Amino acid sequence: xxxxxxxxxxxxxxxxxxxxxxxxxxxxxxxxxxxxxxxxxxxxxxxxxx
Length: 50
Prior knowledge:
- There is one protein chain.
- This protein has strands spanning 2-8, 14-20, 33-37, 42-49.
- 0% of the residues lie in helices and 54% in strands.
- The protein has a four-stranded antiparallel sheet, with no helix packed on it.
- It has a single domain (2-49), classed as Rubrerythrin, domain 2, CATH 2.20.28.120.
- The two termini are 15 Å apart.
């Protein structure tokens, strides 16, 4: 498994980290993960960054 960081698309703050399986390691997470961003103070879409 590989640990990846999730970044808020609105403010750019890196709030969360998650694991990816070996099958998904070569691809970036294209899913729209809605997570709570404490900086924006609301739920926003987070994307995978290096």
